[in-house]
Protein backbone atom coordinates (compact mmCIF):
# COMPACT_ATOMS: atom_id res chain seq x y z
CA UNK A 1 0.00 0.00 0.00
CA UNK A 2 2.85 2.38 0.71
CA UNK A 3 4.01 1.98 -2.89
CA UNK A 4 0.80 3.59 -4.09
CA UNK A 5 1.05 6.41 -1.59
CA UNK A 6 4.58 7.29 -2.64
CA UNK A 7 3.91 7.52 -6.38
CA UNK A 8 3.55 11.11 -7.51
CA UNK A 9 0.19 12.00 -8.91
CA UNK A 10 -0.49 14.65 -11.52
CA UNK A 11 -1.81 17.85 -10.00
CA UNK A 12 -5.57 18.11 -9.94
CA UNK A 13 -7.24 21.24 -11.21
CA UNK A 14 -7.81 22.29 -7.59
CA UNK A 15 -4.02 22.33 -7.02
CA UNK A 16 -3.40 24.73 -9.88
CA UNK A 17 -3.67 28.46 -10.27
CA UNK A 18 -6.67 29.53 -12.39
CA UNK A 19 -4.34 30.74 -15.14
CA UNK A 20 -2.74 27.28 -15.29
CA UNK A 21 -6.18 25.70 -15.57
CA UNK A 22 -7.03 28.06 -18.42
CA UNK A 23 -3.72 27.26 -20.13
CA UNK A 24 -4.49 23.53 -19.97
CA UNK A 25 -7.94 24.06 -21.43
CA UNK A 26 -6.57 26.33 -24.15
CA UNK A 27 -3.96 23.74 -25.07
CA UNK A 28 -6.61 21.04 -25.31
CA UNK A 29 -8.84 23.24 -27.48
CA UNK A 30 -5.88 23.99 -29.77
CA UNK A 31 -5.08 20.28 -30.05
CA UNK A 32 -8.67 19.51 -30.99
CA UNK A 33 -8.77 22.39 -33.47
CA UNK A 34 -5.60 21.07 -35.07
CA UNK A 35 -7.20 17.66 -35.59
CA UNK A 36 -10.29 19.33 -37.05
CA UNK A 37 -8.08 21.15 -39.55
CA UNK A 38 -6.35 17.89 -40.45
CA UNK A 39 -9.74 16.29 -41.05
CA UNK A 40 -10.89 19.19 -43.21
CA UNK A 41 -7.70 18.97 -45.26
CA UNK A 42 -8.10 15.24 -45.81
CA UNK A 43 -11.74 15.76 -46.81
CA UNK A 44 -10.74 18.45 -49.32
CA UNK A 45 -8.10 16.21 -50.87
CA UNK A 46 -10.60 13.35 -51.09
CA UNK A 47 -13.19 15.62 -52.73
CA UNK A 48 -10.64 16.79 -55.29
CA UNK A 49 -9.67 13.21 -56.11
CA UNK A 50 -13.32 12.21 -56.54
CA UNK A 51 -13.87 15.22 -58.79
CA UNK A 52 -10.82 14.28 -60.85
CA UNK A 53 -12.04 10.69 -61.22
CA UNK A 54 -15.52 11.85 -62.25
CA UNK A 55 -14.03 14.25 -64.80
CA UNK A 56 -11.84 11.51 -66.26
CA UNK A 57 -14.76 9.05 -66.34
CA UNK A 58 -16.98 11.54 -68.19
CA UNK A 59 -14.30 12.29 -70.79
CA UNK A 60 -13.59 8.62 -71.51
SSE map:
Elements: H1 2-6, H2 18-59
Compact overview of the structure:
With 60 residues, the chain is mostly helical. It has one domain.
Overview of the molecule:
The chain is mainly α. It has one domain (18-59). The protein contains two helices and no strands. It has helices at 2-6, 18-59. The termini are far apart. 0% of the residues are buried.
The pLDDT mean sits at: 86
- Please report which band the strand proportion falls in: under 5%, 5-15%, 15-25%, 25-35%, 35-45% or over 45%: under 5%
Helix-strand string: HH
Biggest beta-sheet profile: none
Cα end-to-end separation? 73 Å
Helical proportion, percent range: over 70%
Strand elements, count: 0
As a whole number of angstroms, the C-alpha radius of gyration is 24 Å
Number of domains: 1
The helix/strand class is: mainly alpha
Q: Low-confidence parts lasting 5 or more residues at pLDDT below 50?
A: none
Amino acid sequence: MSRFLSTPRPPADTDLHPIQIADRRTAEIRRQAGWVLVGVGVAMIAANLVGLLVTLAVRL
